[in-house]
Amino acid sequence: MLGCHIGRCFQVTVAGGSYQEGLTSVIQGVPPGMLLTEQEIYGDLLLRKPGADELSSPRKEPDLPIIYSGLNAADTIENAGNKNHTNGTPLAILIPNLDRHFIHIKQYQDTNRTPRPGHASYASFIKYGPDDDAIGAGIFSGRYTSTIVAAGYVAKKVLKKCGIEVFAYAKEIAGVRCPDIATDQAFKYTNDYKTMRQDLDPFYQEVYVKGRINMEMRFLEKTRILAQIEQEIDAIRDKAPKLIPAAIQDKYGVHPIVNCPDIKAAQAMVDACNRIAATGDSAGGVVEVVVTGVPTGLGEPVFYKLDGELGKMLGIGAVKGVEVGAGFAVKDMTGFENNDQMRAEDGKVVFESNNAGGITGGLTTGQPIIVRLTVKPTPTIDKPQKTIDKYTLENKQLAAITRRDPTIVARIWPVAENYTALVILDHLIAHYGYQTLKAK
What we know:
Elements: E1 5-6, E2 11-16, E3 22-28, H1 38-45, E4 66-69, E5 91-96, H2 102-111, H3 121-128, H4 145-161, E6 165-173, E7 176-177, H5 183-200, H6 202-209, H7 219-237, H8 245-252, H9 263-277, E8 285-292, H10 306-310, E9 319-324, H11 335-338, E10 342-345, E11 348-351, E12 359-360, E13 363-364, E14 369-375, E15 385-388, E16 395-398, H12 409-438
Antiparallel strand pairs: 1-2, 2-3, 3-5, 4-5, 6-7, 6-8, 8-14, 9-14, 10-11, 12-13, 15-16
């Protein structure tokens, strides 16, 4: 595969598949001197993992990461205090698959002759032939997005040191749309939602808070613990506290399931999605990503325009459209309505609107970057569908499948958030270099 790599200054290569041994992110361009732990990476991974709530697939993957390389294994000299600091070499993050039992493999073996409509299984079979990794859809499964989340967390940590914040949330699910929310309010809400999820995630508490895996352990010690956890997945999941919406709202001020910064809208999204799921079908929606603190002039002309680079998020499975700022709505505007007029105020440039989404000519304006992704309904549904036998081309009917996500929107927002961070950091490194040379 030639397409599993992104970036020029901050580079990420991903590998693995849904039912392979696991998945991997290899990251180049991480600056040295940054303390990094598996616990904080998992804090983002738990936001997109399956089996966490009623809107996600029942697969029980905990998505527990292991940092394999790129950190100092010990202080470089006695009492240097730089153990577990990034050292500038490629950072490799492993995400082992722990819920890949033969019963599920056999289900795929029994149905892989008949491609699922809406999935990549027919096209990938034609491309790769009989050896195509069709168990669980391989790298075309949504599981590969865990690699983006892991790498993107690292990028976000670097960006935060530069005063740049990246966050995302569900803007629309099943036709229910979140009203416009002030950027600072949405940012606080998203952070509170992440805190809630960490506090209530049984693996976060059992594995990291209790110290079953910690950064003092060697790789083989960690894999020994993961082998134990593989046998305890159900027992650990049973320790999850019951989600009582009123109590969660009172303590955290968020909805227990959907990261939407309007609690009434979030509940309406869940209700609408459940009504659709009850018929055996699935729902789509929209994710919104916001970036603040970005310097003006970030991006490169023509082939590396920042909005064009963000448009590559069409590569996220199930994403069918990407818009920046007003996006497709500009077709109904006049030039006067669409233009973001500006004025000087106290020595600073102030814009009167942000229809450009913080990007003009492929370069940032200094305003918040606003990106929205349209997410298709989950193609795996509980309804019989027409398909073919990919070996004989006989017409077939695909039986209903019950192990599925009623919607993917509630799990894609952390993928979009972290993918955006990869793009922004890649451009920021180039921008800093360019500005430094310009000043010489």
